[in-house]
Design a protein that fits this description.
The complex is a heterodimer. By secondary structure, chain A is α+β, with helices and mostly antiparallel strands. Chain A is about 35% helix and about 30% strand. The longest helix of chain A is centred in the last third of the chain and has 24 residues. By secondary structure, chain B is an all-alpha fold. In chain B, α1 runs antiparallel to α4, α2 packs antiparallel against α3 and α3 crosses α4.
């Protein structure tokens, strides 16, 4: 009986972090992150696709998506590890990438086979241009950040893992955080002035 | 108002009340309660928004707190006409207790 209680306790301890991993931390809020390739039109012979990985490539949680003509990378589930590949238009395999019909029930063997097939395809036909696309961020509730746009300027000869430029959009709270201390400082200086007199 | 605004106001009021109690415990014999409350309110309104601005940019908690302790000690010294060490002690204790409560809740 005691062993059962200890085992249940250990199991609970193992499961609890997994549950809390998908919950927003107290005192924090998620902010919207957009990712955009700025120079996508410089590569007219290529198609850009984003692939997500969560254990396996191209699973239902982290599908393969086409990067839009404007260069926007589709948002992913927060735990997906996202990369962007460039594929020559002549090498594009639409059926493998986009027209795949998933079995109605998850089949681990099929999922692994597809993952391996995709991995082979991307390593032979694809050029990894961006890795570690950041898709999710939590900021303190008091933060002035409201959204972020990551701009990537890509080159086919190298893989970048950081945005070339980051645009942070802020809420009006930034004015509150700056104006209030200035007003208070003026009041304190006024108090000194009155005292000195 | 958004939940964030309520939460931020709650944090400010919480910090104000905790620091007011601490400063009052130190200075109750030499200053009137409303003077203490007014000055602590001004001090908090000066340092608290700036600290939040830095926390929001993921600045290091300890560095921000040290800056807050130093600035508040300077303001306490000037507003309550105290010695430097006593001001520093009051500021340190007040911020230590409010940080403790911040972590707890």
């Amino acid at each position: 009986m005691n062993k059962l209680i200890v085992l249940s306790g250990l199991l609970t301890l193992m499961i609890l972090p997994m549950i809390s991993a998908d919950i927003i931390s107290p005192g924090y809020r998620p902010i919207n992150i957009e990712n955009k390739i700025t120079n996508i039109n410089d590569f007219p012979d290529y198609v850009f696709v984003s692939i997500g990985s969560l254990g396996e490539i191209g699973g239902p949680m982290c599908p393969i998506e086409r990067v839009s003509n404007e260069g926007f990378i589709m948002p992913y589930y927060k735990f997906c590890s996202v990369s962007v590949y460039a594929i020559k238009k002549s090498d594009l395999n639409e059926n493998l990438l986009f027209n795949y019909t998933r079995p109605s029930n998850y089949n681990e063997t099929l999922a692994k086979e597809r993952s391996a097939e995709l991995e082979n395809y991307f390593s032979s036909k694809g050029i990894k241009v961006i890795s570690h696309v950041s898709d999710y961020k939590e900021v303190p509730l008091s933060s002035t950040q409201s959204s972020i746009v990551n701009y990537y300027t890509i080159e086919l000869s190298k893989t970048i893992d950081k945005p070339s430029n980051i645009e942070i959009k802020r809420s009006n709270m930034i004015y509150v955080y700056i104006i209030i201390p200035i007003i208070v400082l003026l009041i304190i200086l006024f108090i000194f002035y009155k005292r000195k007199k | 108002m958004d939940f964030e605004i309520y939460y931020i106001l709650f944090l400010l009021v919480q910090t104000f009340i905790i620091e007011l109690v601490i400063v009052w415990l130190f200075l109750r014999k030499q200053s009137k309660f409303f003077d203490i409350a007014g000055f602590v309110f001004l001090i908090n309104l000066f340092t608290w928004p700036l600290a939040q601005l830095f926390y929001g940019e993921s600045a290091n908690f300890f560095i921000v707190e040290i800056m807050v302790v130093l600035v508040e000690s300077l303001l306490i010294r000037l507003l309550f006409k105290l010695g430097y060490w006593k001001s520093l002690l009051i500021s340190f204790v007040a911020n230590l207790v409010s940080a403790f409560f911040g972590f707890m809740f």
